[in-house]
């Protein structure tokens, strides 16, 4: 009788332990898949005030004719960029959007390490923010090849990739039909991290001396 | 003595069953994560012959001055597109690459349902393949808005997304620095499927009648 009772207790104990491990494993897998960001943003974005993203304490009633407190594709994009804590690597064909430039300058003032790789021709066009970034002391390299550096991607803290069809211009954000993917999938992020390092190395700092200025 | 032996057998049985379930669960999870494609291709692609992708039985020695049997970013991109079994939805700013056009025509001849949504202005430029696709009977719609339809994405069989900075042109493939992501992550694919349907609906077939021809 005692032996049978022991069988039951031991069996139940083993089953209980096994189910607990299974549950822990499932919770861990679920948490991991929840943690990985996979988002898509489409443009054109609704035009709205983004001042509250730069100055969260500012009341919504400040003087501005645009709608306030509206969540748009662009405000979400700004938040993803501003989430950078340690580094931001930008590989951009065209960069003339002043709000995006402001976000990069804000991160720079917070001590985030920023590297900007851009197309030589487009860095010199009217309205380009590349000169503004350079003047602020941000490390900028222009692609030295004869072809277009047509990428439009950013890597936040070496772990989050922001990429798509969207050039960092006002027209792309407010007018064109565009897309942006935000992902933390290592299989997608790591090749971009590697490619950025390769391109950064190819266009070394020596050429900064004769690069385009604003 | 018999009771103790029974305890051991039952306990071992439960542990064995539990471990087997754990192993099956792990194999299933692994297989699932392996099945999901997450790839990145960078361009410019090495220039190589892609004839073997269209005609797999053709010997590599056929008359052509380009390197043969080389695996390039472009040959991989072609293979992903040609993997379509039932449908291919294209949302492209510019489409002038003849090999990509040939791949789409081949899929059309195999009975794959193809829908092409493109930018009105760029569909009319010299070298555009849009007229060729139309003539072959492929359903093409041009974006009717005043802004640019700047997307460069494809959805294969409603489950695989091909997107990035790369326009479907020869310059983008062979010269520029570009990227393409290939993913089956539902969180990334489904928004593009939905956006394609939305844009396709916005630019309904009525406007096909007065659209640009080659």
TrEMBL record, chains A, B:
Reaction(s) this enzyme catalyzes, per UniProt: a cardiolipin + H2O = a 1,2-diacyl-sn-glycero-3-phospho-(1'-sn-glycerol) + a 1,2-diacyl-sn-glycero-3-phosphate + H(+)
Annotated Gene Ontology cellular component terms: mitochondrion
Q: Which InterPro entries match?
A: PLD-like_dom, PLD_domain, PLipase_D/transphosphatidylase
Q: Does the keyword section mention Signal?
A: no
Q: Which GO terms describe its biological process?
A: lipid catabolic process; meiotic cell cycle; piRNA processing
Gene Ontology terms, MF aspect: RNA endonuclease activity producing 5'-phosphomonoesters, hydrolytic mechanism
Could you tell me which residue ranges the PLD phosphodiesterase domain spans?
145-172
Which terms are listed as keywords in the entry?
Hydrolase, Lipid degradation, Lipid metabolism, Meiosis, Membrane, Transmembrane, Transmembrane helix
Q: Which Pfam families does the record match to this protein?
A: PLDc_2
- This protein's source sits in the domain of life called Eukaryota
Which CDD domains does this one have? PLDc_vPLD6_like (cd09171)
| Keyword NADP assigned | no
Query: Which residue ranges does UniProt annotate as crossing the membrane?
Result: 6-28
Q: Which family does it belong to?
A: Belongs to the phospholipase D family. MitoPLD/Zucchini subfamily.
> What name goes with this protein?
Mitochondrial cardiolipin hydrolase
| Source organism | Oreochromis niloticus
